[in-house]
Structures are given as structure tokens and as C-alpha cells.
Amino acid sequence: MKLKKCASLVMAAAMVLGTLSGCGSTGGTAKSSEAGSADTTAENSQESKESKEKQSGGNLVVYSACNDQILNTLIPLFEEETGIKVELLAGGTSEMLKRIQSESVNPYCDVMLGGTESMFYDFMDYFEDYTSVNDEFMLDGHHCVQGKLTPINMDSAVIMWNKNLIGDIQVNSYKDFLNPELKGKIALPDPASSGNGVSTIADMAWIYNDHEWEGEAGWNFVTDFIKQLDGKVAASSGNAHKSVADGENTVTVTYEGAAFAYLKDGADVAISYPSEGVIPGQAVSAIIKDCKNQENAKIFIDFVTSAEVQDLFGTEFMSRPVREGAKVADFIPDADSITYIERDPNEIAEHKANVIDTFNEIFAEVQ
After folding, report:
1. Which GO terms describe its molecular function (predicted)?
2. All domains in the chain, ordered by first residue
3. Strand pairing of 251-255 and 157-162?
4. DSSP 16-72
5. Residue 257 confidence (pLDDT)
6. Nearest to 249 by CA among 171, 172, 191
7. N or C: less crowded end of the chain, CB within 10 Å?
């Protein structure tokens, strides 16, 4: 595996989502449960047969917004199982998508792995039509999007704080971020470069404007929140949640995948779901239009949606898998215990540019 990283993001562990970074096409929130049935065994056997038939060796170029744990596991496993050699470039979702756009005349990348679904909508012309052979096994709300985007995991927003720094401060809602004691202690990824950052600001504005995009109430709340940042934003989602885990900042809004990983490792962090409600998201992957290794790209998409890999998402990568019957770690909260708010993922794509511009204007004004 050849590994490259964009210079501006060498220290980032960019998350999925959808990276929201995440990461649902229609807001699906179905609960994952453990595999083990005869049907699942049959599915695995069939997939193994199809995978072997498809194996061809050769090369594949993958751009990814997934974190290091996912990449350091999936890429070698894929190479071992298929004989295909992978060149990997990792960075933030926005940066990777803009790179794909700039290379569209002569694509270098074959597959984009991970990133919040809504971030892809402005770039749909650069992706190839492909529906995985595993699409029939996906949970409701997590099937192929527009014939191009393949969901790989669910990833919703959580509040994460450092237990050694939080003291008696309560952070169970977005409103709790306005506590004067938290001023200058909040880590927010820059919305201009982070899908997590865009989603956080968009969700706050939308929720506090009675689930509408037009109006002042939501942006008044965001203005108060921005004042709490004390002039600081993180370069990436990875930098933001790492700064909380390392004790540089007290609290952040991040994706489940990042928070679950810290919990698994025994870090001094705790999480809560915003009491105002959580807007479900998912991370997706897609094949680049007119890419050089299209058949290998299809094999890769089928690989990340296989039962084997979906089990890894739920047990090792600390994300909610999107495949029926996939295994999940015991400490991942039951989806039924979370208050979800349904919202068409197209909406945030339509308003993303305005969210970024308005954030930048307010950020400059309050300094």
C-alpha cells in the first residue's frame, strides 16, 4: 500500500460522516444486530464466491476521508484478499472532493472512500453509476443513493467532552455550549474544510429556527455559539476531537465513530447526544467517472459492503454498520435510545455554501 497525505492534513485523523463525516440517505435509523443466521452464512459464501471470481490483481487509487484505524485495516485486507495494489491519499472530505473535481479531465483517483453523504451532492457529475452486489442486504434507508453513492456506515453527531476538564459543567445540549465557563474551551472544525464543521453549524441554525432554513433565530443562536469559540477553529475534525481527548480543549461536537474509538481505548472522555435531537447521517463511497481501474473499483465497493467488513465497522471501527445483521460493540448505544430528527440530506447540500459564508461573516464580525 502506498500512502500519501495532503500536507495541510498530515496531523488529521479525518472522520467519516458524513464523516457525517460521518455517513442516512433517507434518514434511516434501523438498529444493527448480531449476525449468525443461516441466511447470513449463505450470503457470506455467495460473496466469497463472487469476490474470487472478480479477483484480477492490478492497481487501484483510493482517496479517503476515513480515519487511520479504518484505512490501516481495510486497505491491507483488501490487498491481501484481491491481489490488487492500492495507492491511498487521505485527507478531509472537501479537499478530496475538490481534488477529484480538478482532475476530472484525466482522473487519477478510482474510488472515493468515506465522507458525509451531503458533501458529495455538488460533485455528482464526477461519479460513475454503480450499485453494489450487496445492496440488497443493506438496511432500509441505506441503499445506493442516486445509483452512485454507496453507504458504508451510519454516523451521527455526539457531544464529546474531557472528563478531567469538564468539572460540574453540563453539556447535554447545544444550548449548554453557551455556558460562559466554556468560552475558549470549545473545539469546532473549520466549516470551510470540514464536513463535521458544516454539519454542526447547519444543525444548530436549523434546529434553533424551528427546523426551517429561513429566519434569524437560528443564526442568532449560532452567533452566540461563535462568540464562545473565542476566535479559534480547528483545521479538521480530527484535530478537533483529538484536542479534547488530549486535554487541550474541553468539549466538541464530533461523529459517533470518533467518539466510540476513544471510549473503546479507555480515553478520559464521555459523550451525550444533543437533547434537541440528532439528525442521522451516513458516510458513503463512490467510483470516479472514467477512472482507469473501474473494474477494481467495483470490487472495492463490494468489499466495503461485505458482511466481513461491515462487521469490522461495528466491532473494530466503532461505527454503526449499514448492513442487515452486522455485529456491533456492546457499548455502542442502542439507536432506539436516541432522539432522531428526520431531514432530507439534500437540504444541507443545498444550503452548505450559505452556511459556510454566513459562518465566516459572523466569525469575522465578532472578533
Report:
1. thiamine binding; thiamine pyrophosphate binding
2. 2-155+280-337 (3.40.190.10), 157-278+344-365 (3.40.190.10)
3. antiparallel
4. ---------TT---PPP----SHHHHHHHHHHHHHHHHH----EEEEEE-S-HHHHH
5. 83
6. 171
7. C
Whether 112 contacts 88, CB under 8 Å: no
18 Cβ contact partners less than 8 Å away, ≥ 6 residues apart: 93, 115, 116, 117, 118, 119, 155, 195, 196, 199, 255, 281, 282, 283, 284
Whether pTM > 0.85 for this model: the answer is no
C-alpha span between 109 and 97 (Å, rounded): 10
| pLDDT beyond 90 at 74 | yes
Cα 266 from chain centroid? 22
DSSP assigned state of 233: -
Structural contact between residues 18 and 62, judged by C-beta atoms closer than 8 angstroms: no
Q: For position 52, what pLDDT does the model report? A: 45
Backbone angles phi, psi at 361, to 5 degrees: -65, -50
Q: Please report which confidence band the pLDDT of residue 14 belongs to, taking 50, 70 and 90 as the band edges.
A: very low
Span of 182-191, 199-208, 335-344, 356-365 with lowest mean pLDDT = 335-344
**141 falls in which pLDDT band (50, 70, 90)?**
confident
Cα separation, 126 vs 148, in Å, equals: 10
Which pLDDT score, from 0 to 100, does residue 212 have? 96
Quote the Cα angle for 4-9-238, to 5°: 115
Q: What is the pLDDT, as a whole number, of residue 333?
A: 86
288 — phi, psi (to 5°)? -80, 135
Q: How confident is the model at residue 9 (pLDDT cuts 50, 70, 90)?
A: very low
Helices (H), 230-344: 237-245, 256-264, 294-304, 307-315
Q: Which residues contact 203 (CB under 8 A, 6 or more apart)?
A: 157, 174, 279
